[in-house]
Amino acid sequence: MSVFTSLSAEQASACLAGYALGTLQSLEEIAEGVQNSNFYLTTTQGDYVLTIFEVVDRLAIPFYVGLMAHLAERAIPCPAPVATVHDGYLTELGGKPAVIVQRLPGRSESAPDLAQCAAIGRLLADLHLAAQSYPNPLPHQRDTAWCAGVAAQIESQLAADDAQLLRDELAHQQASRPPDLPRGVIHADLFRDNVLFVGHRVSGLLDFYFAGVDDLLFDLAVTVNDWCTSADGELDEARSAALLAAYDARRPLDRRERLAWPTMLRAAALRFWLSRLYDRHLPRPGKLVVAREPATYRAILLARRAADPAPARLA
Known about the structure:
Elements (H helix, E strand, L loop, with lengths): L8 H8 L7 E6 L7 E7 L2 E7 L8 H13 L16 E4 L2 E7 L11 H18 L12 H11 L5 H17 L6 E4 L8 E4 L2 E5 L6 E4 H12 L9 H14 L4 H27 L12 H14 L8
C-alpha cells in the first residue's frame, strides 16, 4: 500500500457522510505496498481502512470487493467491505473509485515460526476452497502473458546477464508450465506483510487487489517463496514443509501439482522479480512509496532454478 492521492481530513469527512460510520476522529496515511492509496480511518464507530484505487481496472474493482465480502461471509478473516447508505460498496474520491473496509486486529510477522507457517498454509487452502463458490470469475492479471509483456518493455534497460536470465526463464515457463492444473480464484500476493496474526492465529488476510483465476499451485508457490525463504534466496525446508503439509491436509495436492512444483516456484519468483524491475525502471509518482528490491527475487529465482531438475538453466 502506498499514497499516490493525498487526502485531507475534510475530504475524508465528506466521504464518511455516505456511510453510517459516525464522524471522523483521525486519518493516517499507510506507507506499505505499491498499488493503491490507503489510509487508516478512526471514526466514532470504530477503525477502518480507506482505499483509493489508482491503477486497477475499474471493471475489475467490483470483483475484488465482492470477493472480500464473499470470503468474509465464509469465515475467512479478510477485511469485509462496508456498505454505503445506498447499499453499494464503492464510492469516489477525486474522481477515483474508493472503498472502506474493516480494519482487522493483529500485526504481520517478518520472521514467522513453524506454527505460523502452518497456520497460513491451512488458511490459504481454506481460502481456495471458499472461493470456489464465488460467482464472478476474473482472470489473474499477472500471469505468464503479463510477464512476457513487461519483459518486452524493460529488457533493453537491463544488464546483459539479467536480460538473458529473463529470456531464458520466460522460455522455460512458456514451454514447461502445465496447462491442466487445478484452477480457481487465488489471492496472488499473500506475502507476510499481507497477513496479520494475533499470537499464532491468523487474524487478517489483506490486499486482494491482484486476485483472479489461475493455477491454485501458483498461489501456494507465491506464498512459500516469501514465507519460507532464507536471506540467500534458498528455501527453508522446515518452514516450507510445515506450510505445505498444512495446506495439503486441507486441499490435497494431486500428482500433476506435485510434479509441477519446481516450475511453479520459478514462475512465482519470475512474476515478482519482473514487477519489481518494472517499478524500478518505469516508476509511478507517489508519496511514501516503498521501493521493493528486485535483487531479492532475482536471488530467489536463481535458487529455484538451481534446485529444479529441469535440464535447461542459465549458468
